Amino acid sequence: MRRRLKGYGLALAAVTTTLGSAPALAPAQGPIPQTPLAKAPAFTGTAATPNPVAAPEPPRHPHMAANGRSNLHSDAYQTDTNTGFGPLGRELSVTSSFRARECASVTFDRRGRIVTVCVGLERTTLELLDPKTLQTLAEMQLPARDLTQAGGLNVFQNFTGGGYFYLDDQDRAVIPTASRHLFVVALDDQQRWEIVRDVDLTSAVPSGDAIISALPDWAGRIWFASRSGVVGVLSRDGTIKTLDLQEPIGNSFAVDETGGVFIVSDKAMYRFDAGPDGVPRATWAEPYQNTGGDPKPGQSQAGSGTTPTLIGEDLVAITDNADPINVVVYRRGAQPPEGGAPRKTCEQPVFTKGASSTDQSLIATPELIIVENNHGYTGPAAVEGGRTTTPGLTRIDLNPDGTCSLGWTSQETAPSVVPKLSLASGLVYTYTKEARSDGDDSWYLTTIDVRTGKTVYKALAGEGLGFNNNYAPVTLGPDGTAYVGVLGGLVALRDGVPLPEPDLASRPPAQRAARLVFRCERDGVVRAEVKGSAVRRVRFRLGGRFRADDRRAPFAIATRAKPGTTVTAAATLRTKRVLTSTRRVPRCGR
Prior knowledge:
This protein is mostly beta strands. It folds into two domains: 8-494, Methanol Dehydrogenase, Chain A (8 Propeller), CATH 2.140.10; 510-584, Immunoglobulins (Immunoglobulin-like, Sandwich). It contains two helices and 41 strands. The strands form ten sheets. A six-stranded mixed sheet has the order 1-31-30-29-28-2, with no helix packed on it. Strands 3-34-33-32 form a four-stranded antiparallel sheet, with no helix packed on it. A four-stranded antiparallel sheet has the order 4-5-6-7, with no helix packed on it. Strand 37 and strand 38 form a beta hairpin. The longest helix is centred in the N-terminal third of the chain and has 12 residues, at 8-19. The radius of gyration is 23 Å and the shape is globular. The N and C termini lie far apart (66 Å). The relative contact order is 0.14.
């Protein structure tokens, strides 16, 4: 599994030059150079046996590529979950491609090819890559970041200029660029990149500011957010409307099918909706705990370090900036919660005081949340020479009503990666680095059992500066390969033994295994019923309050609750798995 290269010192100098100040030519696409004579083991643990996790798949966004292929957080809900496999550790092989630019956001077109933006100091490129060899099939240079306009940001914590982009439903890359334009880029008939739309956003995002992310809502309008707090909407006719929060924004955002756009600033968690005139309006705002002052070591901003994550049909989760930080869960609906209930349903402390921070989106299903500790990561120098950061990944157990409690905590150390959960395998995929007294800098793809928190296996991705992922995610490809963007370029780990077919029978989508349906009856009565041959028990909540524990079919309640009231059904299957669905009471008749 190890790669030893002659001329390592010269190659490492090329990486260091590119990560430093002087411009460098694009490197040849050989393997990323590694530290010679390192002694880290290539593989520890045992190959995994799949143990699928039951969870409903977020709805497919009509204006984005398929779930798992569209953006760095997997889907429009930003769940960081994948229905398919990652590598199980069966005869693993490692492939890397040296570019001296970090290919962080990895997406996949309909043919399974990689579409990625590779960001460097002097050069940013849009790349089409072969998913097996990682060789370039098409490349286009994008506007380079003007580091004089970075607003004092640590260059290794600046995600503007293409760090967040998405692949749309036509396999086009939609990229907020460093020039404060929005590019829509497609492949032409000769398989070359071509800008098919160039939207000038400089009138909305002033000089000195930068666009952090862009995503479409369900109506096809493209929303964008800037580092300084501008929230904007590009309508389908090209009109641009904005709202200036005057609160810094450091991460991407999430969108749902109700029109909600969920953005966290350094001050508050927001839901935005487009008003009748297309202007973005804050539907609600919830300030969160914040220590204030400078960013904690491990975060790129002085506030929440998370992209909001949508859970089921009713919840949104972030971490705050308390000490220690909390996982915070809110009801995300546009209307205030019924009965005067608070919007916040959960505030769970994680990690320890003085050593708790994260800059990564949460993994979430309706039953669990995974949060990672990045405390101590301030850039590549923080983990050089055998050093590392504060350990910890923690599972939060989530109840149907949004309340929560602590689950397990793993002592694995993931300095700055966005982890992923494979629902097919039941494994959390993270990227770790242990402290070593011999000064070795070894980076591992590490798998954790999502049920127990125990480490299953660790596979060496590479050794040295070029394999530092610097805030990039683990991305699980359509064929089960795990990709990690690193400072040297891109690394891929895949099984040598073919993956099994996903066990769909033991991991049914909630809408088939336990479907919550409504029927309008006479006199304004609405009947809510859970259908599914495997259902053995259903607990119903109406408007957040317990209503019934039904142990016999048909599993149903009748209500005259007003339209829009939430009905949550937690269905226990004969396999003892629990699937939770939340829907709103429909409007019956006229």
